[in-house]
Amino acid sequence: xxxxxxxxxxxxxxxxxxxxxxxxxxxxxxxxxxxxxxxxxxxxxxxxxxxxxxxxxxxxxxxxxxxxxxxxxxxxxxxxxxxxxxxxxxxxxxxxxxxxxxxxxxxxxxxxxxxxxxxxxxxxxxxxxxxxxxxxxxxxxxxxxxxxxxxxxxxxxxxxxxxxxxxxxxxxxxxxxxxxxxxxxxxxxxxxxxxxxxxxxxxxxxxxxxxxxxxxxxxxxxxxxxxxxxxxxxxxxxxxxxxxxxxxxxxxxxxxxxxxxxxxxxxxxxxxxxxxxxxxxxxxxxxxxxxxxxxxxxxxxxxxxxxxxxxxxxxxxxxxxxxxxxxxxxxxxxxxxxxxxxxxxxxxxxxxxxxxxxxxxxxxxxxxxxxxxxxxxxxxxxxxxxxxxxxxxxxxxxxxxxxxxxxxxxxxxxxxxxxxxxxxxxxxxxxxxxxxxxxxxxxxxxxxxxxxxxxxxxxxxxxxxxxxxxxxx
Length: 473
Description:
Layout lengths: L1 H4 L5 H12 L9 H28 L5 H22 L3 H23 L8 H15 L1 H25 L4 H103 L3 H29 L7 E4 H6 L2 H5 L6 E6 L5 E5 L1 H18 L4 E8 L6 E8 L6 H6 L17 H11 L3 E6 L5 E11 L17
Parallel strand pairs: 2-4
Antiparallel strand pairs: 1-3, 3-7, 4-5, 5-7, 6-7
Helix pairs in contact: 2-3, 2-5, 2-6, 3-4, 4-5, 5-6, 5-7, 6-7, 6-8, 7-8, 8-9, 8-12, 12-14
C-alpha cells in the first residue's frame, strides 16, 4: 500500500523545465511550450494527490502507521510541488517531486521488500522516470540507477525474509529481473523518444532561423527594389522636366512680357484707377507664373507614391496644359475625355508621369509635326478604363514594337535617350493592376492602349469635364 503512496513525478513538468533551462525568458512571460508543460504537470500533481487521498480514506485505520505516514508524505510532496509550480518554478517543482518520491519509495522498498510493491510498481516507477526524462537525459538515468538500487534493496529484503532458501532466492531473482528489465526498457524508450524530439526541435529551429534569414534578405531585396524603382521614377521625372523646360520658358516669356506691359502702362499713366488696374494685372500675371513653377516643382519632387481614387475625366483634363508644353505649333493636340463616369486608383503624379512619357515619345516620333490624340473610354459595366494615346509619327517596326517596353531599350542615338520612359510607365501601370498594349507599324503612327481597373462614380457624381452624358466608346 505504501507503494501507492509514493506517486512520483510528471513528464510534463520536467519537459517544461528542460525548455525553460535551455532558453532565457522574461520573468513575466511564459513560453508556450513551458505553459503546456506546466499545465500537464499541474494535472499530474492533482491526480497523484487525489489518488493518495483516496487510498488513505479507503484503507483508513486498517493501514499500518508507516503506510499512513508515507501516504501523507506523498500528498505533502504533491502540495510542495504545486506551490513551486504556482510560483512558476517549473524545474525546481519537478526536481522536488522526483527526489522526494524516490526517498519515499526507498523507505517502502527497504521496509516491505520487492514483492510487496509488484502490484503497484508501475504507478511508482513510471512517474519518476517521466519526470526525470523531462529534466534531461542525465536526470533520467540517475533516477533509473536509483530505482535499480531500490529494486535490488527490495529483492535482498525478500531473500532475507525467506532465509535465503534456494526456492525463495530463485523467485526473488525472477522478480528482480522482470522489474529491472522493465525499468530499463521504459527508461531507454523515454530517452530515445526525447532525444528524437529534441533533435527534431533543433532541426525545426535551424529551419526557422534559415527561413527568418531568408525572409529578412527578401525584405531587404524588396526594399532595395522599391528604392531603385523610386529612383528610376524620379530620374524619369527629371528627364521629363527637361523636356518641359522649353515650354515653361516660353510661357514665362509671355508672362514677363505681360508684366512689363502692365508696368509700362502704370508708369505712363497718372490716373489712379489705371495705375491700380495695372498693378492688379501685374499681380495676376505673377500669380500665374508662380502656379507654373509650383506645378513644375511639385512634379519633379521625389515623393513616396500615394495612390488615391481619382475621377478619371477631370483629372486627365487638368493635365492638358502640361502635356501641350511638349508640342510646338505644328502639332495638333486633341484631348477627348469621353465624359467617362468612372474612378481609378492611381497616384496623380505617377499618372502625369506615365502620360508625359507617352507624349514625349509621340513628340519625338513627329519631328515635323502631326496629330497627337489622348482619348478616354470606360465601356460597360465600368470596371475598366481605357486610355488611348496615339500619334501620326513614323511608327515602329514589329521588332521594335515587341521590345519597346524593355528597360534601357532605345532607338535614339547615344546620349539622347535612357530607354527608361516606357519601361517605367509600364511598371507603374502594372503596379496598379493594369496593362499597356502597343499597336504600331512603320509609317502608320503608334497607339498605346492603357487599361486600368476602374469603378463607377458614386451616386450623384460630379459631371465629367465638358458636362453632359458619357459618350459611348
